[in-house]
TrEMBL record:
One of its GO terms (biological process) is lipopolysaccharide biosynthetic process. InterPro entries: Glycosyl_transferase_4 (IPR000715), PNAcMuramoyl-5peptid_Trfase_CS (IPR018480). Keywords: Cell membrane, Magnesium, Membrane, Metal-binding, Transferase, Transmembrane, Transmembrane helix. Pfam families: Glycos_transf_4 (PF00953). It is a multi-pass membrane protein. This is Undecaprenyl/decaprenyl-phosphate alpha-N-acetylglucosaminyl 1-phosphate transferase. GO terms for molecular function: metal ion binding; phosphotransferase activity, for other substituted phosphate groups. GO terms for cellular component: plasma membrane.
Length: 352
């Protein structure tokens, strides 16, 4: 039994012990986050925390796991992501450069044979994607990588949501029979939890792009390896449900900005965490509320993997409807005006 927990213990304690060292390094190289109009902190904060997550994760994987081509691809692509994240946190990197590095990282994954090979649907069963699987894999990895980056707006938010998603990926991988890869997301979650001690509100350090991009890339890649080998209809939807918070928040941002006639890449203060803060929740309660939604999505994904296809599709439909109703209620879809004076004041001072 100890052999199962050994990798998790290594990942957790390495991240836990390395984080204070990374904090000192961040101040030394001036990798600090300054207060700004869309941010919730009031002082300089070190932002290389993702490096501690990476060190914890890689140490446990390299010491305890069988190094297959898929694992090498995960580590190799992750190395590129970490390098561009470090550069961005210290000096700044243009969006085009970050995108290029993400494409290169995705190509490393493709070169190892990790890709979406088919899609499934209830009518004709399996559809072989052929060469179309290559661009779809790249788009999936880039999309999830940046989606996790977008939700990194509050202390502990991206880290906690990613940990919940990683644990869910591990559980569903075991259910789907992909046991060889199932422990990798558990190790990732353990390294996140080691870092989260310093990142939960009030945070002592931020993960920065180093962490959010690294987590997004790993979650996206692990989802392909662990959840796309089954030819069942429901397997197509499991990664989307598990990574529901970052994916839906990004999707709603696109819908909202299009509806309001704004550029899709224009930043705003109507993401889920902004809206919950504006509705009167405290910083800590906002993060915990989003954790709760992530847990519900995780439970839904596990149930979908356990039940029949028809039952799984029903759970998927109910979950999707619930997400859209909830999004409309808190104003994520339209970025609606807050007529209540108290809430309007909270909204206007969310990032001050």
């Amino acid at each position: 039994m100890l052999n199962y927990f050994y990798p998790l213990i290594i990942a957790f304690f390495v991240a836990l012990l390395v984080t204070p060292l990374v904090k000192r390094l961040a101040y030394k190289v001036k990798a600090v986050d300054k207060p700004a109009a869309r941010k919730v902190h009031h002082k300089l904060m070190p932002r290389l925390g993702g490096l501690a997550i990476c060190v914890g994760f890689w140490t446990a994987v390299l010491l305890t796991q069988e190094l297959t081509m898929e694992i090498y691809a995960l580590l190799g692509g992750g190395l590129l992501i970490i390098l561009v994240g470090l550069r961005d946190d210290i000096k700044g990197v243009s969006p085009k450069t970050k995108l290029l590095v993400q494409v290169l990282a995705a190509c490393i994954v493709l070169a190892a044979g990790v890709r979406v090979n088919f899609m499934t649907h209830p009518i004709n069963g399996v559809i072989d994607l052929g060469y179309l699987g290559y661009p779809l894999t790249v788009l999936w990895i880039i999309g999830v990588t940046n989606a996790v980056n977008l939700i990194d707006g509050l202390d502990g938010l991206a880290a906690g949501v990613s940990a919940i998603a990683a644990v869910t990926l591990g559980i569903v991988s075991l259910i789907e029979g992909v046991t060889a890869m199932a422990f990798i997301p558990f190790i990732l979650a353990a390294s996140i939890l080691g870092f989260l001690k310093y990142n939960f509100h009030p945070a002592q350090i931020f993960m920065g792009d180093t962490g959010s991009l690294f987590l997004g890339f790993n979650l996206a890649t692990i989802a392909i390896i662990g959840l796309t080998k089954s030819a069942t209809v429901i397997s197509l939807f499991l990664p989307i449900v598990i990574l529901g918070i970052p994916i839906m928040d990004t999707l709603f941002a696109i819908i909202r900005r299009y509806h309001n006639g704004k550029p899709i890449f224009c930043a705003d203060k109507d993401h889920l965490h902004h809206r919950l803060l504006a509705l009167g929740l405290s910083h800590r309660h906002t993060v915990l509320a989003i954790y709760g939604v992530s847990l519900l999505l995780g439970v839904s994904a596990v149930l979908m993997a356990l039940v029949t296809t028809a039952q799984g599709m029903l759970i998927m439909v109910v979950t999707t409807l619930g997400v859209f109703i909830g999004a409309e209620r808190v104003g994520i879809l339209r970025g609606r005006d807050l007529k209540d004076a108290k809430h309007k004041k909270a909204y206007n001072t969310v990032a001050k």
